[in-house]
Design goal:
2 strands; single chain; 14 helices
Length: 392
């Protein structure tokens, strides 16, 4: 679906068609959570990181240690676990649909990975071409991997998510055969790996958990898809949230884990990289919270005025995600070129500028989406034409 002369009109008709033809049994809340979680990540990167120039490169440390009680915000705003829970729901739904249509695991994975990796490959290719041309034409150009490595921040997530997609035919089968044993073994392995790393000094286990924790979190989405979480009701959801919160307090206040779920200066180690069991516990807490909000938000999403933006955002969500740090880099470069001073500490003046660091990158990002979003839209449209049944 390439953008042309009447692109806006065609896009509007296409979105209206999707709204009108949304199946009555579609779990709209999943689509909302996918968009919401990516939105929180982007706003965090743009506004709640101290983006500044060190003299030869842009960096973006988090200022959480400068905000009294700021670490508590990360228990909700480090929201990538929600995206992986949503991914678990969607991948399980997609694999169920594929099996019902007689589609094998290779075709299922091929379609899933094309939707994920084609926009990413296009992003990497364009940056590579830009870097080659800039090295030829700009004297002293040091390369984006030196001055602007921050633009590739989203790619760690893409790698982790690719891994859980590749494993989804296996992990869904294990869930169907022995769901509680499977989740228990995963959780136990994650815990043992952390013990081996933190108490035994085996640092390689940190790499193991950096993958395994996200597999565990992805597996939680299967309990949403199979109805287990829905049958718990609000009381059960509150118990999940409360249990996760108590476990998190125990791990971070009484235990050895840092309280912040993002990397900040001064921590003895990071919870996010290598990923620790604390992030898995955050996922349990957040799972309870989102289930508590499900009914109210789901009713709101029945309104076309609410549902249409969710469809529109999800249609280009990967494009938005992979390009959002490039949009920030463009603004950082232009801001410095115009004489603006990038503050290195979160002063009152820094906080007063936060609105600008939402608005300006958003304008640039809109341009990237207008230019490159057609690639993702085309892939999703092709997938819908192949199968009219939604798979999350």
């Amino acid at each position: 679906m390439r953008l042309g002369t009447s692109a806006v009109e065609r896009l509007g008709h296409w979105l209206d068609s999707l709204v009108e033809n949304t199946p009555g049994d579609r779990e709209r809340y999943i689509d909302f959570l996918r968009l919401f979680s990516i939105g929180v990540v982007i706003i965090w990167h743009w506004t709640l990181s101290v983006n500044h120039w060190t003299g030869d490169r842009f960096v973006n440390p988090n200022p959480i240690e400068s905000v009294p009680g700021g670490w508590a915000l990360t228990w909700l705003l480090q929201i990538m676990p929600v995206f992986f829970i949503v991914g678990g729901y969607a991948n399980y739904a997609g694999w169920q649909s594929a099996r019902q249509r007689g589609v094998g695991w290779a075709s299922f994975l091929g379609r899933r990975l094309r939707r994920l990796l084609v926009p990413v490959a296009f992003f990497v290719l364009l940056w590579a071409l830009f870097d080659v041309v800039a090295r030829v034409l700009v004297p002293g150009y040091t390369g984006v991997l030196h001055y602007g490595l921050i633009v590739f921040t989203p790619l760690w997530f893409i790698g982790a998510y690719t891994g859980v997609i590749l494993l989804s035919p296996l992990t869904t089968t294990l869930h169907e055969r022995a769901r509680w044993t499977t989740i228990g073994v995963l959780a136990g392995t994650v815990l043992l790996a952390d013990v081996g790393r933190l108490a035994g000094g085996v640092e390689a286990l940190g790499l193991v958990n950096t993958g395994l924790v996200w597999v565990l979190i992805h597996q939680l989405g299967y309990f949403y898809r199979d109805g287990t979480l829905l049958r718990l009701g609000r009381t059960g959801a509150a118990a999940v949230a409360g249990g996760g919160l108590l476990a998190l307090v125990g791990l971070t206040v009484l235990g050895p884990y840092p309280r912040s779920m993002v990397t900040v200066p001064g921590q003895p180690f990071s919870n996010i990289l290598p990923t620790t069991v604390a992030v898995a516990v955050v996922a349990v807490f957040q799972l309870g919270v989102i289930m508590l909000a499900r009914d109210r938000v789901s009713r709101w999403l029945q309104r076309p005025v609410a549902w249409k933006p969710v469809i529109a955002g999800n249609a280009v969500i990967l494009t938005v995600f992979v390009w959002h740090m490039t949009a920030l880099l463009v603004v950082l470069v232009l801001y410095r070129a115009a004489g603006g001073v990038l503050l290195t500490v979160p002063t009152a003046e820094w906080w007063a500028q936060r609105w600008f660091w939402v608005a300006a990158p958003a304008v640039v990002l809109a341009g990237f989406v207008a230019a490159f979003g057609w690639l993702e839209i085309s892939g999703r449209s092709l997938g819908r034409n192949r199968s009219r049944r939604p798979a999350g």
